[in-house]
Amino acid sequence: MAPKELEELRTQLNELGEKGFITPSMSPWGAPVLFVKKKDGSLRLCIDYRQLNKMTIRNKYPLPRIDDLFDQLRGAKFFSKIDLRSGYHQLRIREEDRYKTAFSTRYGHYQFTVMPFGLTNAPAIFMDLMHRVLKPYLDRFVIVFIDDILIYSKTREDHKQHLRETLQTLREHRLFAKFSKCEFWLAEVKFLGHVVGAAGIAVDPSKIQTITDWPTPSSVSEIRSFLGLAGYYRRFVKDFSKIASPMTRLTQKDVAYEWTEKCEAAFAQLKRSLTTAPVLVLPEAGLGFLVYTDACYTGLGCVLMQGSGVVAYASRQLKVHEKNYPTHDLELAAVVFALKTWRYLLYGEKFTLFTDHKSLTYLFTQKELNMRQRRWLEYLKDYDFSLEYHPGKANVVADALSRRPSRDTEVVTCHMMHEYGLLEAATIVCQTEVPIETQVMICAQMRLQTVSTQRVSEGQRNDQSYSRFSELVRSAECTDWAETTDQCLRYRGRLWIPEVPELRDEILQESHRSRFTVHPGRTKMYHDMRRHFWWPGMKADVSRFIRNCGICQQVKAEHRRPGGLLLYRFLFPDGNGKTSLWILSRITEDREET
């Protein structure tokens, strides 16, 4: 140790000895000591008990879930926080076990008479003690996490009484608090890395500062450390698992460490998401919940809401075998994931679950289910909820969790976005980014090249029907026809496409084969086109075009009604050496006998 550390070691050993916390030891055990710097710059004496912990039988007393603790605070307006003074040191160790806590220093060999920090069973033992002491008040107006005690109340009078009862109980059990770390009568309190108030729960800005100042990871262990710290606040971040997926991949086995631009983008996005995390409402039983789920082949996402406020976000990446699920099973997996995640809130409550997969709403009346669906259906029956369809375009909350837009520049040729999209070759260069604070898509750049509007106008004037339609435009009695500022004629608001084969074929091609249409059927394609375009015989042209589409003929299933029973008189051979052949044409259904 450095001279400064040795001086600090001597001072702290003297203090511990004067308090009776340590005594000289003759133990065969001996753990090393080290110092860790505190926030205020002072040094904390730590003892490395790793070898002792390996041989210790674990105490399985459960530590409470942080989310469960905060959910008890709904409706509270007054808070007080009590921090026990060196909580572990208030528990004595049996004399026959003290030799196990021995540690070696330059100034001698010592052992503890009280429970030291660093023992694997220390948190569980102290948590057990606090639950025994404050058991009458737990989940009524007190929550405890090891040595941190939070008292909460809805009214000022109640809080006064709750404080009196809690402090009196601590006095009776001779548990002492550190007054400098206690806070009383607060409207908003910092507790376990969160800020809790009447409005809800938010992240503690002082804790987030550590994350924002985190340097770029240079090893797998540093990635795990960062994700572990950031993951503590994952309930505040939409799409946490998919944002972190490039970094998570580097922690897998047999994956070479290579910090790419995607990893850097994910690293920066997590920092931004945590610094702009929203305030989550605290759930209240009996008011009902809304659950939105969505799934895609990159992950599952769900949102828990109460009223118009968000209670929590949840998401996870797909497992290897889940990537082979059909869409129906994947959407059902998102539902099961949401119910398992928030079971402690949803079980026994009536709620509404929204999905953007319409066929999922018929799950409870579906007759044929595979084994996986049957197993999940049995799990769903434990909950009292209604399953409703919510279109994907409206279900933007959960969609944001399961679908993270790519940050890469994408160049697309867009024609079906609007009526003039079919007439103007629009090359859109867009960089999509979804900041947490706005949750909107930003189109960075757009370039349009007008190439066909003039062709339509010229084609109309060269068409034989132009003079007849122009007279209808000028006629006061006819209101179906009009001429717009672009010098194009319209029929009932729809653009009249003249008899120019190249122009009509271009529209048919884009309406059927572009990336925004994907080979629709005859009826759908016609109805999509008639909203913007019109020409005589357009429906027949659509039918003819689809009949000549090779992809549709090869891929799409036949929807003809199957033929009935063969009701026809057969001719049978009337002697040896004679045959009778009956032929039926599948296309013309003509019959021929020979």
UniProtKB/TrEMBL annotation:
Q: Which Pfam families match?
A: Integrase_H2C2 (PF17921), RT_RNaseH (PF17917), RVT_1 (PF00078)
Keywords, comma-separated and alphabetical: Endonuclease, Hydrolase, Nuclease, Nucleotidyltransferase, Protease, RNA-directed DNA polymerase, Transferase
Among the record's GO biological process terms, what is one? proteolysis
- List each copy of the Reverse transcriptase domain by range: 17-196
Top-rank taxon of the source lineage equals Eukaryota
* Keyword Cytoplasm recorded: no
Database matches in CDD domains? RNase_HI_RT_Ty3, RT_LTR
Q: Which InterPro entries does the record match to this protein?
A: DNA/RNA_pol_sf (IPR043502), Integrase_H2C2 (IPR041588), Retrovirus_Pol_polyprotein (IPR050951), Rev_trsase/Diguanyl_cyclase (IPR043128), RT_dom (IPR000477), RT_RNaseH (IPR041373)
Q: Which GO terms describe its molecular function?
A: endonuclease activity; peptidase activity; RNA-directed DNA polymerase activity
Q: What is this protein called?
A: Reverse transcriptase domain-containing protein
